[in-house]
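Thread amino acids onto this structure.
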């Protein structure tokens, strides 16, 4: 079932947490809410779960109103499963008992199947403190999904496990969720995590959604330099339009460097990848601040006279004592009007 947010606004006293947020999490897909702490993503999840009352707007499940300013069913009355960062397992119950908690007695026989599905076969008799962090998260996922919720809400579910295990958990979780056909909304502050698991991503800034799109669209057609940097690993260079191109702290770059539309404004943000920059030795150029070998290439950090830094990744030899000009290759520079 699809989960839809319509014109949601929310405040904590004088602080506006959400402003006119509207989007839909399609049936059977994984939708990520991505943004920095305080942007409102966890508030949206709490509103959908029933832990907060809707102040303005409405939340719909398959077209029917689930919650609005007049009605607020408690969490247990909503067809929604919850997974939190710490798993929130009952410490006094075994893992099997945790998974069985939300099931009617006649369905307790399904517990072993769920343990197997999340890679915990044979561990049902253990208690949460006897499992690793990753195993606890798997158990929390099984407990949330076993009752067959129409919607699964996940708040930073992988943040407390190490990076190697996190990748595996994301992969396994995506496979299980897609097989189950659950409509999932996942909160994260990690762009890599969103790219790894999501079908659609809502990028949030200060209580608003600035772009809602597929991972590919966010990578190929970001609406701003900030969004582009978030998903492509590029760096943002402030600049101005000049007669023959763009002027920045790192020199003048010709028009031919630009990719796609160039806004007709004076102040611009230039989005450029470190591996799309060429270094040209020049006695009047930039100073090398750091030079670090990384596998087949070298990462070079250069500093401009005003203290601004730019990073270049190159396979060419670099002389740390030399000075260099930096030039983007043709068609590699995305240009945005500066906000």
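Threaded sequence (339 positions):
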């Amino acid at each position: 079932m699809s989960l839809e947010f319509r014109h949601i606004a929310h405040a904590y006293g004088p602080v506006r947490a959400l402003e006119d947020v509207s989007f839909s999490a399609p049936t059977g897909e994984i939708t990520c809410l991505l943004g920095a702490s305080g942007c409102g993503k966890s508030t949206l999840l709490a509103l959908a779960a029933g832990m907060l009352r809707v102040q303005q707007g409405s939340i719909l499940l398959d077209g029917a109103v689930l919650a609005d300013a007049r009605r607020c069913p408690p969490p247990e009355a909503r067809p929604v499963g919850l997974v939190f960062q710490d798993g929130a397992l009952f410490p006094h119950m075994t893992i099997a008992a945790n998974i069985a908690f939300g099931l009617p007695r006649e369905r307790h026989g399904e517990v072993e199947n769920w343990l197997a599905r999340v890679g915990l076969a044979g561990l049902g008799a253990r208690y949460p403190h006897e499992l690793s962090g990753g195993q606890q998260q798997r158990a929390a996922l099984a407990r949330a999904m076993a009752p067959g919720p129409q919607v699964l809400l996940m708040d930073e579910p992988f943040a407390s496990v190490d990076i190697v295990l996190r990748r595996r958990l994301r992969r396994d979780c995506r496979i299980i969720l897609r097989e189950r056909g659950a409509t999932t909304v996942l909160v994260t502050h990690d762009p890599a995590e969103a790219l790894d698991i999501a079908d659609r991503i809502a990028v949030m800034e200060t209580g608003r959604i600035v772009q809602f799109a597929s991972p590919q669209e966010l990578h190929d057609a970001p609406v701003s330099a900030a969004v582009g940097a978030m998903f492509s690993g590029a760096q943002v260079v402030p600049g101005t339009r000049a007669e023959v191109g763009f002027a920045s702290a790192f020199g003048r770059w010709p028009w031919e460097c630009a990719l796609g539309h160039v806004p007709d404004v004076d102040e611009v943000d230039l989005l450029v990848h470190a591996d799309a920059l060429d270094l040209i030795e020049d006695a009047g150029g930039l100073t090398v601040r750091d030079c670090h070998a990384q596998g087949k290439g070298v990462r070079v950090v250069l500093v401009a006279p005003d203290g601004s830094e730019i990073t270049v990744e190159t396979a060419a030899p670099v002389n740390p004592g030399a000075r260099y000009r930096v030039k983007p290759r043709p068609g590699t520079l995305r240009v945005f009007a500066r906000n």
